[in-house]
Amino acid sequence: MRLHQCLLLLFALLSPLVQGAILAIDYGAEFTKLSLVKPGTPFDVLLDRDAKRKISSVVGWKKNDRVFGAEGKMSPLIAATEVPDLPIYPNPPLLTDDGSLIFKHANVPDHIKPAPSADAAWTPVDLLAHQIAAPAASRRPRGGRGREGTSERVTPKSKHFINTTHVEALAVGYEHVGAVNLDIATRDLIQDAFVKKTSRPDVKDDARAMARLSKEAVRVKQILSANQEAQASVESLFDDLDFRGMISREQLEDKMAKKLPEFTAPIKNALKDAGLTIDDITSVLFFGGNARVPMVQTAVRDYLGGKDDKVAQSVNGDEAAVLGAAFYGASISRQFKMKSIEIDEHSSYDYSLAGDVVFPKGTVQGERKTLLLKPEDKLDLVFEQSGTPILEVNIPDISAALANFTAPEPVVNLTLRLDKRGFFSVAQAALTSNQTDVPEKAKGVLGGLFGKKDKTETSADADAETEGAENKTEAEKAAEKPKKAPRVILKYTSKPLFKTMSKDEKRITKERLASIGVYEAALRAREEARNRLEAYLYRVQNYLSDEPDSKALFDFGTDEERERLSSGVASAFEWLHEYAESAPAGDLVSRLTELEALEAPIALRYTEWMARPTAVDKFQQAMHAGRAFLLSATENRTEALKAAESATDENPVAPPKYTEEELLKVANMLKEYEQWIDPLMTEQVKLNGDMKADPVIFSKDLDDKGKTLQIYVQALEKRKDPRVPRPKKKAPPKEDTKLKAEEREEQPEVVVEETEQKVFEEPVREEQEIKHDEL
């Protein structure tokens, strides 16, 4: 019993782990994609509410409702951009003194608490939190694609499959160029064509016109990826002037001719850092927003020597990143049992202190290094990442630690860490001694390298040392053990030199998101209650009409009940028409509950009328099976008891299969159910099929009692037949035992020598062999 309780407790503790899930997010400049790894869910990209595998990376407000994706583009707070001269319509951001962007919103919803001020409506972190919260807001995760940059990663030629798949990323190349640059180039072509046609160069100063041109440029770019020409069309672009014109792929390629080398620069830089050449590359994978642009594909193929076989065509570039992130996250999680994958990445930057490189570029991420610094009263250190200060470390009160430090040559031991994610940090600071003592054993080894004494002298010294070692005390042996170097842990503070969110900013952001979540949850509950009420009203209205889809209300309901239900439906329709947009969820639910209570008696008669015949048949079958079992089980027990009366210890028989208490319980259940069903069945028959009368017997009671009897009887029938006990061996009489012992004592002892025994035995074996031959 105790073991059973322990197992239940163990399963209860493990259940939260089993129900865990991993969400992978590919947040792109244009689209966002998500993938979920969850028990019982297929491993794939998640769909949004419109059954699309991607969602636009846009968040906006439609009155008081937060909207995402295509709907959010109608009134965006922020849109994808990386070029300063690309305006954001309708609310361009403000640049503060500390370099932060503030996105103002004219009418902040009232339910957001604490309410942001007019000058600090939203920050990019707030907007990113909104966008990631989109799946939870719509109760369906979403996905998308897009890149703000182009990068290439060089991997080894082969993977080592032992027990774990090892992948090593040798180098990374990056260039600040992406699909947005193609959008801007296409927009400029359309703008130039409009200016040439209308002679209105001031169109570039109109934010609304430029926003519409940018939207049309994205569409034209996508068409040019598959066609040589595309028609651009914008109605009422500027001062009620329409524009229609043709843009060719050749024009776009000429516009981007100077930037084409930048698309292949990541490959060149990655190969250079990895110490490889183009001949070492076996495959190039394309993924990202600009992967399908013909000019980019052509530039990469030309750089690879014009070999098409080096460009992999079997990878879905849109979903490779998010699916890979989900798979890798599941492989390193303890909640899922998947094939293990270990990825060793190299740092793309070098980390230095005062010009001295600590972690050079190309260092395998996950390493640690130690710096030995001269102790001072305090140390102020600034670490740089490729020349940019990123971390300031302060170690105060070193003099106080030196006052209690007695070891010679004290130094400050600073442990630095570059973790698997590429984050640089300080792991520990301690005060240690820089003096290293050479053990006697090591000195002997070093001395042996420069000469030996005579063999006789060495042998004599060894004997003396052996004799002296035996006479050493335990205290002397303990004194010879090497002493542990003293170490004093120092307190330090580290401060990132790039702007991060403060505690107050984090708290305010969380409170705002929580208030929005509460508001949206209440809004969804109200909409759901309204939809349920409307659906119920239309369904009942149809049943009460002259040509209903079902005549259940007329067959099973009285005239008075139908009148009350019809009046309630009419009143609810009138109330809903007036208060549908403002009524809280509680009022909608209460209205629905009142109408369901009026319909409940009619619905009960209908369901019981349909389910009662089947329930009665099953109950009677269970009773019949129970009686048959009781009869056969009683006979079995009677025969077993009669056989047991004539059984002996040498010839036992099997005990009865069922106990008297078990058979008595079956008999009592049969008797109880018969007494229960007989009067109720008599009353039900008297109704004579009146469908408008309330039922006397309910199908649920029949099912419950029938299942209870059936389960108990089936458990007894499945029981295995008892085994026949082993017969007991009869012990010999005590007098015979004593007699045999006395006979053995009276027999004379015969002693035969070994040689005589062998001679005596040999003829016997020969005679036996002869008999075997005859056989």
Automatic annotation (TrEMBL):
PANTHER family: HSC70CB, ISOFORM G-RELATED (PTHR45639), HYPOXIA UP-REGULATED PROTEIN 1 (PTHR45639:SF3). This is Hypoxia up-regulated 1. SUPFAM superfamilies: Actin-like ATPase domain, Heat shock protein 70kD (HSP70), C-terminal subdomain. Residues 1-20 form the signal peptide. Pfam families: HSP70 (PF00012). It comes from the Eukaryota. It comes from Trichosporon asahii var. asahii (strain CBS 8904). Residues 744-754 have a biased composition (Acidic residues). GO terms for molecular function: ATP binding; ATP-dependent protein folding chaperone. The keyword Chaperone applies. Keywords: ATP-binding, Chaperone, Nucleotide-binding, Signal. The keyword Glycoprotein does not apply. One of its GO terms (biological process) is endoplasmic reticulum unfolded protein response. GO terms for cellular component: endoplasmic reticulum chaperone complex. Residues 145-155, 469-482, 732-743, 755-775 have a biased composition (Basic and acidic residues). Residues 134-156, 456-482, 717-775 are annotated as: Disordered.
